[in-house]
Amino acid sequence: MRLDLTGLPPTISEIEAFLADNSPIAYEKVVDRLLRSPEYGEKQARLWLDLARFADSDGYEKDLNRTAWKYRDWVIQAFNSNMPYDQFTVEQLAGDLLPKPSMDQLVATGFNRNTMLNLEGGVDQADAHFMVVNDRVATTSTVWMGSTLGCARCHDHKYDPFSIKDYYSMAGFFSNAKIYPRGDANVGEEKWYEKQIQVLAPEDQKRLDDIVARQNAAVARLKAEPTPEWREAVSKGISWTPLDVHRVSTANGSVLQAKPDGSYLTVGKIPNQDNYTLSGETKLESISAIKIEALPDPGLTLKGPGTSTSGNFLLTGVHLRVDGVEVPLVEGSATYAQNPYSVDRKLSAGGYSWAVYPQQGKQHDLVLEAEKSIPVAAGATVEVVLEQQNTNWPQHLLGRFRLSFTSAKYPRVAVLPVNASAKDQAIYYARTAPELRSARFDVTDLVAEKAKIQSRMATALVMEDKPVSGEITTHVHPRGEFLQLGEVVRANVPAFLPSMPANAPKNRLGLAKWIVDRQNPLTARVQVNRMWETLFGRGLVDTSEDFGTQGSRPSHPELLDWLAVDFMEHGWNVKAMFRQMVLSSTYRQSSQSTLEMNQRDPLNTLLSRGPRFRLEAEAIRDTILSAAGMLDLTVGGPSVMPYQPAGVWDTPYNGESWNVAMGSQAYRRGIYTFWKRTSPYPSFMAFDAGSRESCLVRRTRTNTPLQALALLNDASMMEAAKGLAHRMSDWESKHNGPNTAGKIRYGFATCTSRYPTKVETDSVVKLLDKLEKEYVAHPSEAKKLSDGPRGAALVMVANVLLNLDETITKG
Predict the structure, then answer these.
(1) What is the pLDDT of residues 684-734, one digit of tens each?
(2) What string of DSSP letters covers 92-151?
(3) CA torsion sign, 100 to 102 to 108 to 113?
(4) DSSP label at 480?
(5) Which residues are CB-neighbours of 698 under 8 A, at least 6 positions away?
(6) Does the pLDDT value for residue 323 go beyond 90?
(7) What is the Cα–Cα distance from 698 to 686, expressed in whole angstroms?
(8) pLDDT of residue 419
(9) Partners of 614 in the beta sheet?
(10) How much is the average pLDDT of 28-43?
């Protein structure tokens, strides 16, 4: 039962607790607990993702990666919250068309965005989108109607009462998608995309809302009017006092030549990087800012002001010290600054750089403002260090420059654009006034914090329709060919089925409401049949993908009808329906069979015994990792890439690679494994998973030698065997070992959910002893698995237990 409801095997402690519970409702309590567990939603979502053809890549030749996992998270949450199936349907088919749709309702529409996307060069994008529409018609009709409406794409259905007109009337609901072209159509590189949104986690959304509120408050503070003192500084200008230089030095040998105007010119051989240090005195009693003038000179290439062959320079840091004490320089402004080099803040910590390309050959000034005005005693030594340590652009040093200081309150008005308008002055006041510094820093910090949160935002592919007046129309395409346009038809449902509700809009929302309308004879039957198939291995209608005349007749038609009506009458309650099924005496039968049963009911069509069948691919992986004590039960999040053999994903054209997950991420449940359509996870394919290129209603079950090889030899399975061996040894140490038989019984029960018989225990112990002898004879082989022969033998025994038929079989 735990396998059916959660996709995970019961633990030994759970089994023992159940057996020890003498309550008459012990079984019901377990059922209710499992239906409440987060693993329930993951199990049901795994089944739904096949229907939704969910994948992490686009498909076709390039098969580029896509980010779509938010849809998977939505499905898991929908099942865990027991969203009514009719709501579950409407939100997936038309959540975007609901009044004021929530973010979750938009994400839900990813159901119809899971289609493959052809981005190959030269592909006619209108034709490619036609294929997308066809997929949506076929998938919707299969998932909710159990029909092969897709067969009517080219002609009237051969067996069921669907006409080609029905098909394209249904296609009309999906033909109104809004398209966002990108690329040059003239060279065949235009691609058609549909809407994509960014989705925040609830906790991040709360933080983002708080940041926006704080940011708005800080911006409001910056709208203050300039003070009269600031306007006076603008009109009168700023007085600057040059540094009276006593000593000049450079770190890497540059020669600085003093000029009569107090500037310095870099001459001689130019190193790749250098620091200039100038120290001296100033007549000022305090310093509020330093000004660095980068000056043109005829001796420099293109007149400089830098030493590079382009005339540019790259200043990477400035330090100001008074009597050896660092003066924090917190903000800066320049008459011109090359993008992306910033001079706005964190200057003394080297958190900025300044360059002037392509404005070479001109004078440029940089004013760096101190955190607060610093007093300067008479005779104090003032030192300035100009750092030029960029390694990407060698020999980009200041060619000619001059240093000066001011004690003015508003020093940065010195680089205010000439003849700035009153509006520009107000903007500049907001950007430079010291009294508004905290507001500026708040805005900058909040913008950075906001960007950090947004960088974590996942994207989601969602549906969006174009505005339309009147009814949606489309063409019939005779023979299903894109270029052949037949009669015009209105968006509508198949003619032989009940009409759409009178109040339903003629769009996807109306279609969704029609699908879950009580008068629709298919939806509830199709869903309860799939749920029955989940538990019993086959549906009451064996062909769960086809309820038409070519499908199987129901084995128990009255039961199917009753379940469908009961499902609707109880609010489309999925958990309640599962609960009812697993509490039934039919489900609770023993799976043991007799010769007579096998002869009269070989496929268990008559439900003469409890269900028994091999687990699905993901459940096999989850079961083995669970037995090994390695399974990470974290719910939700991006897809992960666990170990797979090298070379499996050698994808041409797109350059993407399989980056093996590290730590616990490598042991997430199978539902989270990255699904690449042209190269699905190999062990999943070995156990009959599909490629997710199209809707898959039920997986076939095969038995092949490749499956045994995958479980016995796959590196991840051997790693699980080591994990199980460790658990067995740990059990032995906790029970005052040595106790070989005890730990074998523990390992066996961990894998199969039952304790072995004495004959089985003795057989496994004998195998352990035999393997130990072999590893004693071949110690180098033992070291590949464990520290010694006994440990290696136990790993191989664990490998055997994990590969037992009972381990990977339900029932």
Answers:
(1) 999 999 999 999 999 999 999 999 999 998 899 999 999 999 999 999 999
(2) HHHGGGSSS--HHHHHHGGGGG-S-----TT--HHHHHHHHHHHHHHHHHHHHH---GGG
(3) positive
(4) G
(5) 533, 539, 544, 545
(6) yes
(7) 16
(8) 78
(9) 809
(10) 97
Closest by alpha carbon to 547, among 266, 108, 233, 146?
A: 146
Instruction: Give the number of C-alpha atoms closer than 13 A to the C-alpha of residue 808, restricted to the C-beta side.
Output: 24
Across 257-269, b (16+ Cβ under 10 Å) vs e yields eeeeeebbbbeee
CB hemisphere CA count around 637 (13 angstroms): 11
pLDDT digits (tens, 9 = 90+) for 756-777: 999 999 999 999 999 999 999 9
Q: Which amino acid is at 644?
A: Q
Q: How many residues does the chain have?
A: 811
Residue with tokens 């607060």: 372
pTM over 0.70? The answer is yes
Question: What is the rounded distance in angstroms from the CA atom of residue 198 to the CA atom of residue 408?
Answer: 47
The answer, yes or no, to whether the previous bond of 202 is cis (omega within 30 of 0) is no
3-state secondary structure of 684: helix
CA distances from 379 to 130, 281, 325, 385, 729 (A): 83, 6, 15, 19, 78
Which helix (DSSP H) or strand (DSSP E) does residue 701 occupy? Answer: none
Question: Span 244-269, mean pLDDT?
Answer: 96
Q: What mean pLDDT value characterizes the chain?
A: 94
User: Are 84 and 78 in contact, with CB atoms under 8 Å apart?
Assistant: no
pLDDT-derived band of residue 349, with 50, 70 and 90 as boundaries? Answer: very low
Could you give the CA distance from residue 167 to residue 170 in angstroms, rounded to a whole number?
5
Burial of 359 (0-12, 13-18, 19+ CB in 10 A): middle
Band the pLDDT of 745: cuts 50, 70, 90: very high
Give yes or no for a cis peptide into 305 (omega within 30° of 0): yes
DSSP string, 197-238: EEE--HHHHHHHHHHHHHHHHHHHHTTPPPPHHHHHHHHH--
**CA 746 vs CA 36, 209, 695: distances in Å:** 28, 52, 41
Name the residue with tokens 């062909």: 543
**pLDDT single digits (tens) 98-149:** 999 999 999 999 999 999 999 888 889 999 999 999 999 999 999 999 999 9
Q: Going by C-beta distance under 8 Å and a sequence separation of 6 or more, which residues neighbour residue 439?
A: 218, 219, 221, 222
HEC secondary structure over 267-293:
ECCCCCCEEEEEEEECCCCEEEEEEEE
Give the position of tokens 């403002």.
369
Based on its alpha-carbon atoms, the radius of gyration of the chain, rounded to whole angstroms, reads: 37
**E strand or H helix that includes residue 360:** none
Q: What distance in Å separates the CA atoms of residue 391 and residue 699, rounded to the nearest whole number?
A: 58
Cβ pair 636, 39 in contact under 8 A: no
Taking the C-alpha atoms of residue 241 and residue 285, their distance in angstroms, rounded to an integer, is 11
Long-range Cβ contact pairs of 513-519 (< 8 A, separation 24 or more): 513/90, 515/89, 515/93, 515/140, 515/144, 515/145, 516/85, 516/86, 516/89, 516/90, 516/572, 518/568
Cα–Cα distance, 28 to 587 (Å, whole number): 13
**Considering only CA atoms, which of 385, 402, 400, 349 is closest in space to residue 275?**
385
CA distance 295 to 646: 59
pLDDT class of 294 with cuts at 50, 70, 90: very high
State the average pLDDT over residues 439-446: 90
Asked whether the predicted pLDDT for residue 651 surpasses 80, the reply is: no
Per-residue pLDDT of 513-546, as tens digits, reads: 999 999 999 999 999 999 999 999 999 999 999 9
Q: Which one-letter DSSP state was computed for residue 456?
A: T
CB 116 within 8 A of CB 693: yes
Query: What residues does 278 pair with on adjacent strands?
Result: 248, 384
Query: Using 50, 70 and 90 to split pLDDT, how confident is the model at 97?
Result: very high
